[in-house]
Structure formats: C-alpha cells, structure tokens
Amino acid sequence: MFLPLQTIPVIDMGVEPFLVLLLTALAGGAFGAALGALPSFVFTGFVVLLGEGIDILQGQLNGLDAINGSLAAGVTGTVGFGMVVGPHVAFAGGVAASAYVGKKYPEMNPNGWDYHLGKDIASAFGTKPDILAVGALFGALGMLVTQVAGGLGVPTDNIALSVFLTAMVARVVFDYPLVGTAAGEGVFDMTPFERGDPRDQPDDVPEGNAGRLAVEPWLGHQYKWLNVAVIGVVGGILGGYIWLETGSVFLGYGISAASLLFLNLGVAKIPVTHHLTLIGVVGAMLAAPLFGGELVPLLAAGVFGALSGVVGEAAQRVFYAHSGTHVDPPAMAIASIMFVVGVLYLLGVLPNAGYLGL
Questions:
Q1: Helix 251-264 vs helix 274-291: crossing angle, to nearest 10
Q2: Mean pLDDT calculated for residue range 9-36
Q3: pLDDT tens string 124-158
Q4: Per-residue model confidence (pLDDT) at position 242
Q5: Burial level of 349, CB count in 10 A (0-12/13-18/19+)?
Q6: For residue 250, what is the DSSP state?
Q7: Which of 47, 96, 229, 244 has a CB 3.0–4.6 Å from the CB of 306, allowing a cystine?
Q8: Which helix (H) or strand (E) is 14 found in, with range?
C-alpha cells in the first residue's frame, strides 16, 4: 500500500515544515533581490546584533522569566541566519539577481561603475517581477543546499558553503565564466588593476558593461596581502575578545555586518570584516581549553583572523577578480577554514569544532 511521504529524505524534516521553509525562502530570496545583496546583509547584521543582545541580557538577568533563551535563539537563528535575512537566502538571492541584471539589463549599470554590472551588489533592484523571481529561486536553492549539507553532516559552516555554491550556480545559469581569464601573470596578479588597464572586449558589448577594468578585485582598498593580514589580526582579536567577555559567538559578526551600512552608503575604504571577527572567535574557542586564561586565546584569535583575511584574499583572486559576478570571498574563507577545523576535530586533533554543532 502506498503511503504519503511523511519526512523529506536526507534533511529529516516533515513535509509541512519543509514547505513552510521553502515558501519563506522564496520570499526571502526575492526580498534580497529587491533590497540588493549588500543591503540585505546589513540587515543580517542588525538582526544578529538584536538576537545576541537579547541573549546577553538574558544571561545578565540570570534566568528571569521576562526574557527566555528561545527568543534569543529565534531572533539570531530563525531570522538573522534563517529564511528572512539569512545570507544563504537573502544575500544569495541578491547576488543571483545582480548576475541576472548584468546580462538582462546592462543599462542599469550605475554611473562610474567600471566593473561588470553582475558584481553590483550594493544597488536595490526594486519590484521588477523577473528580477524578484530570480532572487526567489536562488533563495530557495540556498535553503536547499544548507539543509542538504546539514543532513549529510558536511563538517563546515553550511550557510557560508551555500553562499559560495549558489553564486557559482548563478554563473553557470547566466552564462558567465566560472573563473574567467587572468589579464596579468596568473589569477593572483593584481597589477593590471593597479595600472588601471582596461579589459579587452568585443565591439558589440552592451554600453552598460563597456569600459570594464581588466582585473576587478573584490575591494580596491582591501586586497594587498599585508593589509588584509593586519586588518585580520585586528578583527580577529576584537571578535575573540567579545566572545571571551560575553560568551557570544556571533556578536562580533553582527557588528562587522552592520558596519557595512557605511560601505553601502559610499563611505570610502570601509573594510569588510565579518569573516575576520567570526574566525577570530574560533581561534579563541580552540585555544581556551588548551591554555586557559584570556591572553593566549586572544592571540590565537588574532592569528585566526589574519588567516581568514589571507584565505579570503586568495579566494577573491581566484573566483572573483576575473569573472563577471559576485562570488563572496568572506563566505569562501569561512567555509574553507571551518571545513578544516571540522575535519580536524572529527579526527581528534582539535579539542572542539568552534561553533559547529559536531
């Protein structure tokens, strides 16, 4: 006798809860496309700050009934990292929308933008139904990737992994090169950007995408190896300190994400640091049970922050600088470093897996 499906395989979720997630992820992805990828991520920062603040306040109140742990968990996990403004949903939807707009509507290129329009993640795309539909589909895809990776037990930050994978899928779907062709001496060479070399393009390239630079680094003010290592130390120490003093893993991440409001508003040279503060926390979490105290964990946080900065920079030079869409370097740094941490923990080399629930 045929029985209706009660749970979704792999992710071990009931059909109705899954459909609720799917419907909300479609809306969240469309929301990310409407606002734009970067503005939606700023809201991630705001919501995480709210959720972590509630959690800290709850601890200070020492269990008073006025605030309970489920509220804090719901704000950070369900909203900030969930279907509403979770990066794998809203940001991923916005990134895919930018990739689509870069091919479909090149005339929407902002004045003075000398990258491909597919990399414009700061602009809102409003209410055009086809753009919102792209965001919705990729928001749903981001949810599916995260749920499946979690169900399979992939030992990494699956939200960050999903942000990377959905961006690569967008390149395939909208006919962009997966990596692109390096204009200098290999993918790591940023000197064509420093010289302001224009990209060789066919005569029939749409006007909105004409005048592109030969190499388009993720951040023109944050790509030199020493610079990213130094800001990594700074961000890592601050993230580690916040965790040591408050017990919050994600408060530093929220501060970093919220600070991108100023980058979105056009303030020059605002650094992107959420991958630095988050991985800095992991360094402190790994060192604390081994060495105790606060000094060594804080130093470890700085080292891990620098590592995240360097890994993110390497990732942008391979996956971002030479193609035509946004593939997120912080997500790649977080996913790759946490994969190593997760595997080493499972092998018994590390005392914990940071914030991963392994």
A1: 160
A2: 95
A3: 999 999 999 999 999 999 999 999 999 999 999 99
A4: 97
A5: exposed
A6: S
A7: 229
A8: strand 13-14
Structure tokens at 65: 């009934």
Token pair for residue 241?
A: 């300190």
Name the token pair of 86: 């979770």
What's the pLDDT tens digit per position in 202-211?
Answer: 555 565 566 7
Maximum CA extent, the chain:
71
| Of 248, 227, 298, the residue nearest 80 (C-alpha) | 248
Query: Residue ranges per domain, the chain?
Result: 1-64+71-180, 217-320+328-357
Task: Show the tokens assigned to 178.
Answer: 């997966």
Q: Which two tokens stand for residue 115?
A: 């990258």
Query: Helix or strand or coil: residue 7?
Result: strand
**Is the predicted pLDDT of residue 66 greater than 90, yes or no?**
no
CA 47 to each of CA 16, 22, 31, 82, 159: distance values in angstroms, whole numbers, following the listed order:
26, 21, 15, 11, 16
What the block records as the tokens of 90 is: 């809203």
- Asked if 24 contacts 84 with a C-beta cutoff of 8 angstroms, the reply is yes
**Alpha helices for 174-294 (secondary structure H):** 191-195, 225-246, 251-264, 274-291
pLDDT value of position 85: 97
Provide the percentage of residues in the chain whose pLDDT is more than 70. Answer: 92
Residue 198 confidence (pLDDT) above 70: yes
Rounded Cα gap, residues 33 and 15, in angstroms? 27
Query: Which amino acid is residue 345, in one-letter code?
Result: Y
Query: Which residues have CB under 8 Å from 88's CB, separation 6+?
Result: 142, 143, 145, 146, 158, 159, 162, 163, 166
